[in-house]
Amino acid sequence: MNDYIAYCGLDCEGCDARIATANNDDALREKVAKLWSELNGVPITPDMIFCDGCRMNGRKTPYCESLCPIRQCALEKGVSTCGGCGEMLTCEKVGMILKNNDEARKRLTDAAGSRNHRP
């Protein structure tokens, strides 16, 4: 699986925080901080918008680094993505992502299928 696929199946390559980081784009950092502040009802500043990818070594947004329950659970279980967890289909943590993002669900179920069909 592509290293930029997050534990939850979302594609970090398309995330504006990762794009701003990869391109050192301060204007995009400001735009993302403003949008995320409005969406989440908490102050998010441009200096928080540095992320190299959920499963990559390097920088992460404060939420992804230590607050995301999906990432924390996957790290605790030692799985490369939620697709490697036998509880994925009944998991409340990743459930909202899977319910609302068909592409993420497909990535993880494909990963789960390949895990279950190895010789």
Description:
The protein is mainly alpha-helical and 119 residues long. It has helices spanning 16-23, 26-40, 62-67, 69-77, 92-100, 102-116. Helix 5 (92-100) crosses helix 6. The protein is globular. The model has no long low-confidence stretch (mean pLDDT 92).
Descriptive key words:
119 residues; mainly alpha
Helix content: 40-55%
Beta-strand level of the residues, as a percent range? under 5%
* Structure summary, number of beta strands: 0
Structural class: mainly alpha
Sequence of secondary-structure elements: HHHHHH
Q: Please give the alpha-carbon distance between the first and last residues.
A: 18 Å
> Nearest-angstrom radius of gyration?
15 Å
- Overall average residue pLDDT: 92
Low-confidence segments, ≥5 residues, pLDDT <50? none
The main sheet comes to: none
- The quaternary state of the protein chains shown equals single chain
| Gross geometry | globular
Count up the helices. Answer: 6
Helix-strand layout with pairing:
Elements: H1 16-23, H2 26-40, H3 62-67, H4 69-77, H5 92-100, H6 102-116
Helix pairs in contact: 1-2, 5-6
Short description, anyone?
The protein is mainly alpha-helical and 119 residues long. It has helices spanning 16-23, 26-40, 62-67, 69-77, 92-100, 102-116.
